[in-house]
Amino acid sequence: MKSLKKTRRIQVIVVAFVALALSTAIIGFALRDGINYFRSPSEVLAETPPETELFRIGGMVQDGSIVRGAGTQVSFVVTDCFVAVPVTYTGILPDLFEEGQGMVGQGRYINGTFEAVEILAKHDETYMPAEVENMHEQQNFCEPETSATDGATTTG
Q1: Torsion angles phi and psi, residue 16, rounded to 5
Q2: Cβ(117)–Cβ(22) below 8 Å
Q3: 123 is annotated as contributing to ligand binding
Q4: pLDDT of the residue at 154
Q5: Closest by alpha carbon to 57, among 82, 84, 38, 77?
Q6: Comparing C-alpha atoms, which of 132, 115, 136, 125 is closest to residue 52?
Q7: What three-state secondary structure class fits 118?
Q8: Which entry of 14, 23, 68, 111 is 20 to 30 Å from 145 by CA?
Q9: How many C-beta atoms surround the C-beta of residue 93 within 10 A?
Q10: Residue 142 to residues 57, 81, 129, 155, 156, Cα–Cα distance (Å)
Q11: How many whole angstroms separate alpha carbon 56 and alpha carbon 54?
Q12: Where are the membrane-spanning stretches (predicted)?
């Protein structure tokens, strides 16, 4: 009789282990398209992602870089003050999207240009995406400084 109980116990443990492994595999498979990694422009150029990889890039929109094309096509440059990456986007930009402001874009890096499928901008004067805020802290992100002699804004 003890042998039957022991066999049943082992069977239950094996079935539970298989069910756990199967459910973990199903969850991982379901989430593989929903996981988008954030990269700074420096990280994108240091280790170029494959053209098929969907990821997020974030930084500041470089001053003077926004060029509006035909229809809703827009191109601009995103920078982390060390490296700049050209971005193209077709669609309607958020109302608060402008030069010198933080942004996060989702898309693919193809032939040296980040082709965005979604652009996120800051919400108000104090908001900054968490990814961009972390980048500020980790990389001593350069902030515009006011020159003492002429009051002009420069980046350095």
Answers
A1: -65, -40
A2: no
A3: yes
A4: 37
A5: 38
A6: 115
A7: strand
A8: 68
A9: 17
A10: 17, 6, 16, 7, 6
A11: 7
A12: 12-31
Residue 142 main-chain phi, psi, to 5 deg: -80, 135
Buried b (16+ CB within 10 A) or exposed e, 139-152: eebeeeeeeeeeee
Residue 86 in tokens:
């050209």
Whether residue 124 is predicted with pLDDT greater than 60 in this model: the reply is: no
Cβ-based neighbours of 40, under 8 Å, separated by 6 or more: 57, 58, 59, 80, 83, 135, 139
> CA of 115: how far to CAs of 39, 40, 85, 107, in Å?
14, 15, 11, 6
Give one word for 25, left, alpha or beta, with left for phi > 0 and alpha for psi -120 to 50.
alpha
Considering the domain architecture, whether residues 26 and 52 belong to the same structural domain is answered as: no
For residue 100, what is the domain's CATH number?
2.40.50.140
The pLDDT > 70 percentage for the chain reads 73
φ, ψ at 27 (rounded to 5°): -65, -45
- Token representation of residue 42: 């420096």
At residue 152 the predicted structure's pLDDT band, cuts being 50, 70 and 90, is very low
Q: Annotated binding residue at 127? A: yes
Whether 155 is in a domain gets the answer: no
pLDDT, mean over the chain: 80
